[in-house]
Amino acid sequence: MDKINLGLGAPRYQQLAQAIADSISRGEYPVGSLLPGEEDLCRQFNFSRFTVREALRHLQETGLVTRRQGIGTTVIASTPTRKFGHMIESIDQLQQYASETRLIDHVFEDVVADEELAAELGTTPGMKFLRITALRVGADESKPVAWTRIHLAAIYAGVRSSLADHSGAIGSLVEKLYDQKITAIRQTVSATAIDEAVAEMLDVPPGSPGLRIDRTYAGHDGIPFEFATSIHPGPRFSLSMQLDWMSPG
Amino acid sequence: MDKINLGLGAPRYQQLAQAIADSISRGEYPVGSLLPGEEDLCRQFNFSRFTVREALRHLQETGLVTRRQGIGTTVIASTPTRKFGHMIESIDQLQQYASETRLIDHVFEDVVADEELAAELGTTPGMKFLRITALRVGADESKPVAWTRIHLAAIYAGVRSSLADHSGAIGSLVEKLYDQKITAIRQTVSATAIDEAVAEMLDVPPGSPGLRIDRTYAGHDGIPFEFATSIHPGPRFSLSMQLDWMSPG
DNA sequence: AAGTGGTCTAGACCACTCT
DNA sequence: GAGTGGTCTAGACCACTTT
After folding, report:
1. Are the C-beta atoms of B215 and A166 separated by less than 8 Å?
2. Which string of b and e fits B52-88 if b means at least 16 CB within 10 Å?
3. Is the pLDDT of residue A5 over 50?
4. Is the CB of A181 less than 7 A from some atom of nucleic acid strand D?
5. Residues in contact with B129: Cβ distance below 8 Å, sequence separation at least 6, in sequence order
6. Is the CB of A51 under 7 A from strand D?
7. Minimum Cα–Cα distance from B239: chain A residue
8. Alpha carbons A160 and A154: distance in angstroms, whole number
9. I need a surface site. Which of A178, B14, B134, B190 has the fewest CB within 10 A?
10. B9 touches strand C (CB under 7 A)
11. CATH code for the part of the protein at B91-244
12. E strands in chain B
């Protein structure tokens, strides 16, 4: 019954992995040091190289060591780190609602970042953008769920013509049209008092609380190409996520 | 130079993995079907079993198949899913600020969930809790960064005595004292108007916008044992996270 | 009993890194 | 050139699931 029993009955490579992990956590092999070579470990424990490599693979998967050809096996952590993770499988899933909503009333502007805008977006002045300001509404087009303003690098200004038909996030539209792959998203959530102009469009009293979400999307080069700000009326929206424990192995 | 070239020069197991992945995406092996057995694949491609298994391991890691002893290799996806993930390595990291802040002015209450509270927390009426209401302040004890109310399953009421000394999240205190391991966290973020009582404690005008974060912590049995609500004054707080692309393999 | 994947051995050659 | 990890073979036994 008990799977705790890692000593007997367990495969040799697991026992070996456990033994090495224990040595590491005892400080026998400090972080940064090299483990003995595979041949050494084979002789030391009288196991075949397959078994030793399987054990080392296990240690690699739990994040205790890295392995490099020509160098050796380096200890990079003394304890398996317990990780929690939130995982999504598409960009649209980030905006949980995006697939069921559309953008309406777009206003397009061509802007060049001055000092102020550059500082706000975290870029350098002089960068050219297509600025899209719009409302996001549900299928029934009743009350809008968000006001949104997007600064999109001018190279991708071509999304403009496809925007009306597209339901979902703009990032995924860019991916589709330009074969650009998003590799990192940074998201900041804060609370704000909705200013008068936005309040009117969202049909809420000015100054009422709103959830502000700022997202930047970066491509394969790591450079952000899209900066999106959404303001959601307080009671009409919340952002949920679940973080699950990721077992080491 | 080009690493795109997966055909020649690449190890056989990678070529094989690619070939099988192609077959799967072409629909030759639909989702839910079984791949040929390892021996079959060996004969079919004239590779050793090691090479075949290494290829299948690769497919498993990319999430295309699962393998079970006695059953076979089952196709579970036709395309490698592109995942984005947010990963943290400790509970305290979730509350990015928690390690530099402390709770003050605790008020403890023993409460039993009535219909209303049970509905709010998503539990069943009759469950017993220790309710902790407190303010979270920075090191200099100037303006508080949050008002917080926690409902903690009564079994863990013993944290009460250790709370004053503890900086960081309450969840990690429970983990330490009771050897309980948190395995899942659910977090919901919304904007709210700060009510009068809380506003006074936070030293902001009543009705001003606040960021409300609700978190539930579940243990190894998957049952939530802690329900925490924090309200942060709008301008004094934001929640950031980065989602990175997790390459398949 | 037959078939599957899981573990394991002994031995080989290769690509890489360092000196 | 010596040592490292990466790839690969041929063969074996075992644990598990289904028939």
Report:
1. no
2. bbbbbbbbeebbbbeeeeeeebbbeeeebebbbbbbb
3. no
4. no
5. B110, B111, B112, B113, B151, B152, B153, B154
6. no
7. A189
8. 11
9. A178
10. no
11. 3.40.1410.10
12. 65-68, 72-75, 83-88, 102-112, 128-137, 146-153, 184-193, 209-218, 224-233, 238-246
> In degrees rounded to 5, what are phi and psi of residue A166?
-85, 125
Tell me the per-residue pLDDT of B217-227, one tens digit each, with 9 for 90 and over: 998 778 899 99
Residues in chain A closer than 8 A to B85 (CB atoms): 85-88
Residues of A with a Cβ under 8 Å from any B Cβ are 81-91, 94, 181-193, 208-212, 232, 234, 237-246
Would you say the CATH fold of B91-244 matches that of B12-81?
no
Which CA distances in Å does A229 have to A120, B14, B76, B239? Answer: 11, 42, 37, 14
- The predicted-structure confidence for B128-157, as pLDDT tens digits, reads as follows 999 999 998 877 767 888 999 999 999 998
Nearest CB neighbour to A209, from listed B87, B191, B240: B191
Say whether the CB atom of A69 is under 7 angstroms from strand C.
yes
The CATH class that applies to domain A12-81 reads: mainly alpha
Beta-carbon count within 10 A of B6 CB: 14
> Which bases of chain C are contacted by protein, using any atom under 7 A from a CB?
3-12, 15-18
User: Where along chain B do its domains lie?
Assistant: 12-81, 91-244
Please state the rounded mean pLDDT for residues B55-68.
Answer: 94
- Give the containing element (helix H, strand E) for A26: none
Question: Nearest nucleotide by C1' from A56 CA?
Answer: D5
Q: Do B84 and A88 touch (CB under 8 A)?
A: yes
What contacts A244, CB < 8 A, 6 or more positions away? Answer: A84, A85, A86, A87, B183, B184
The verdict on a CB contact (< 8 Å) between B189 and A239 is yes
pLDDT at residue B165, as a whole number? 72
The helix (H) or strand (E) run that includes residue B170 is helix B170-178
Q: Given an 8 Å threshold on Cβ–Cβ distance, is A184 in contact with B83?
A: no
